[in-house]
């Protein structure tokens, strides 16, 4: 249970004609429930407030958090509790509201988690893919310039053979020849690294 130092005793109240605006605010603050009364109510009814939260939530840690948060909120708004006998009612209502909020957050979290996560490669697969890419780049560098150009345009830039021929200014037959020879050379180079 949190320990709260008692608030200093309120100042003496002057007649309204002599009161300043600062003192008027202090008088309003003193009109609500006192810290001592709130703390005693909290201590006396902690178990029942915990039980109330337990009816709405399913784990003890969340219940304790809700009850403590309720105390903190009522403590910070104690000036609004005009009648001290209603302090417990304020605490109970705050526990219920905070429990509802916690449940809403959980439901939202479950909705978000119920969507399937995209398939992601493991770290090992990512490292293996990187090694394969490195080996492929090394093998590509070992090809003749025209073979490399044809393969890059055809398979990495996703061009048709006719588009490759037009881009490089060579015949369609040359594109096919450079492509097949390049693939054969890549196959040999990749098998050698495996």
TrEMBL record:
GO biological process: DNA-templated transcription initiation
Domain RNA polymerase sigma factor 70 region 4 type: 134-186
Gene3D superfamilies: 1.10.1740.10, Winged helix-like DNA-binding domain superfamily/Winged helix DNA-binding domain
GO MF: DNA binding; sigma factor activity
Domain RNA polymerase sigma-70 region: 42-106
Entry annotated with the keyword Acetylation: no
Source domain of life: Bacteria
One Pfam family cited in the UniProt record for this chain: Sigma70_r2
UniProt entry keywords in alphabetical sequence: DNA-binding, Sigma factor, Transcription, Transcription regulation
NCBIfam families per record: SigE-fam_strep, sigma70-ECF
Family of this protein: Belongs to the sigma-70 factor family. ECF subfamily.
Name of the protein: RNA polymerase sigma-E factor
Organism: Streptomyces hundungensis
Gene encoding the protein: sigE_6
